[in-house]
Amino acid sequence: MEPTHGDYIVVKAKEQGVQVIGLTRGQDTKFHHTEKLDRGEILIAQFTDHTSAIKIRGKATVLTKYGSMDTDN
C-alpha cells in the first residue's frame, strides 16, 4: 500500500495547556497521540496513514490550506 502524505495544519496556542489529539483511522476511531501546548507555542501536524482526525481542546488558532480559524467564538 502506498503511504498517505496528507495535509498539514498549524496550531498556535492562545492559552496555557492547549491539547492537540491525534485520532486513528479504521473501523474504531481511537486517540493515538496527545500534545500539550503552552501559550504562544506552535505545533505543525500532518494527516497520515494513522491519523485521520485531529481534535483541539483549548483556545488556539488553526491554520490550514482552507484558511484560518479560532477555537474560541
TrEMBL record:
Q: Name one GO molecular function term.
A: RNA binding
Is Transcription regulation a UniProt keyword of this protein? yes
Q: Which keywords are on file for this protein? A: RNA-binding, Transcription, Transcription regulation
Q: Where is the Tryptophan RNA-binding attenuator protein domain?
A: 5-72
The answer to whether UniProt assigns keyword RNA-binding to this entry is yes
| One of the GO BP terms on file | DNA-templated transcription termination
Question: Per its UniProt record, what InterPro entries does this chain match?
Answer: MtrB (IPR000824), Trp_RNA-bd_attenuator-like_dom (IPR016031), Trp_RNA-bd_attenuator_dom (IPR023558)
Q: What is the superkingdom listed in this entry's lineage?
A: Bacteria
> So what family is this one in?
Belongs to the MtrB family.
* Binding partners and assembly: Oligomer of 11 identical subunits arranged in doughnut-like structure.
Xref: NCBIfam families: PRK13251.1
Recorded protein name is: Transcription attenuation protein MtrB
Taxonomic lineage of the native organism: Bacteria, Bacillati, Bacillota, Bacilli, Bacillales
